[in-house]
Structure formats: structure tokens, C-alpha cells
Sequence to fold (301 residues):
Amino acid sequence: MTTFADLMVRVRQQLMGYAKDQSAIAELAVSMAGGDVTFTVSPDTVTSISSGLVEIDEELLLVKSFDRTSGQVTLLGGLNGRGAEGTTPAAHAVQALVTADPRFPKMRIKEAINDTIRALSPGLVAFGSTDIVNSSVVYEYGMPAEATDAWVVSDQTVGPTQVWMQGTRWKFITKAPTSAFPTGKSIQLFDAITPGRTMHVVYTKDPSPLVNLADEWVATTGLPERCADLPIWGACARLLPSYEAARLQQSSIESTERAPLVPPRAAAQAAQYFQMMFDKRLAEERAAMFEQVPQTQYYGS
Fold:
């Protein structure tokens, strides 16, 4: 099963390539606590670390100076050099990788993946279900807080046929009074159903973002494994335009020298390609969703 860590690796490989564009990487020679303002890198893995940003695990740090003899790196501003760019200061183990001037920090990749997941709904949704026992005097029932709409309603018929009849008339309420329905979500059912019979409601819900590196795509988001490529295309489309912003910060001489190799808008055009791939795959998965979980007619006026 695809995990959050797997998605991050695949996004980074799409952005950086597999061999041509590699970052300078070292490793910690000594473990580092969350409050340390210096760290030591193995001299076997690096000869120089320039001032600026470095990444250890998912934390960004600001480097002030590097002692080539001892391998000790001193941070800029002491503790102010920890947790740069909104990352969180953390402890790091021996042999943790130290990436100098990371082009796409892991934290930004994680954010882009989750931003893509959040943007999938309502085009692509996950499904949940709940069972309701029909009461002859009740027409409105509470729904789970995660529900965003009712997709299919079916009721258990009387007799040995074991047939579940699909309902055709219901209304999903997103702003139900919490005094009667604590979640603020409810469903009104208007089909004639035998009292005491079970009604099965399949509802839609937003795909859940990933949190931990070990989080699995299917178990966490609620979406099928086959569409785990969607956040890869979407994250790349979100991250690549940062190259264009970086170009604007270069001196005119550097821009002139770089232009023949990397023409203007090259990153934006690459981002458009990834966006096209994302849109194509989203349309395919949306069509599959309607085919595999057909939506019945419902009363919504």
C-alpha cells in the first residue's frame, strides 16, 4: 500500500529528476537535540556547508558558519536558526541526512500533497455509511459529522427476498439544528418504508489529509489505491512555479547567462503539464466513481 513517505519520494523524484539535479547531502556525526544551536556533520560526507538554509529530516535550519576541521556547524541567531520557514525544531539522530539549500523542502512537499488532497472534493469524494432504523412517526434522522451529502439510500424489504430497495426521495440537510441533531447534519426521508426496517445510507465525505509518514493512502484518505498518483501530479503543479519566482530574484547578468539553458516560463510550462495530467486523472477517477457507486435520484427541493 502507498504511504505518505512513498508519495513524498515520488513527488521529489518528479521535481528533481533521478540523476541530473541532485542536492548536496551530508550526514550527522553526532545526534542533535531540539534545543541545540550547533550540529556536527561527518567529514567523510561534506567538505563545505555555506551559510543559508539546510534541511535535517523535515526541519529547516539557518547556518551561520562551518568549521571544516571539526565539522561543526553553527546556527544563525542561536535558537532563532532552528525551525526556519515555519518548520518545527526536533531532535535528529546520528546519520540523519543534512541537505544543503534544499530546492523543495520536505515540509513544502507534504503541504502540497495535502493541499491537493483537500482540493479533490467535491470532484472526487470518499464514502462512508450509516444504518438507521425507521420509525413511523419520524421523517428526519441525524447523520455523522463527516458526511457532506447523501449518495445512496436503501431500505431492507419485508420477507425472505433479502432485497434492499433503493430510495428515490430524500433531502440532505447541512445546517440542521444542533439542538435536535448534535452533528448539525441530518437527512429527511420521504419514501414509504415499513416501520422498524433498517435504512442504509451511503454518504460522501471529504478525503482526509495524510499526517504521519507511515499513513497509508487507502486507510487515511478513504480513496482507492489506483488514484494515489493524483497528489503526485497535483503537488508538482503546485510546487514547480516557485522556480519562476526564484528567477525573478536573480541579478540581470545571472539571468542573461541562465536564459539560454533554462528559458523563461520553462517551470510554468512544466507545471501546466503536471496540471494537465492531474485534470486528466481526476476526470477518469470521477467517471469511475459514478460507475462503481451509482447515485440514485433524490429529492432535493
In short: The chain has three domains: 22-102, 111-122+210-292, 126-205. Residues 140 and 188 are 4 Å apart (CA to CA).
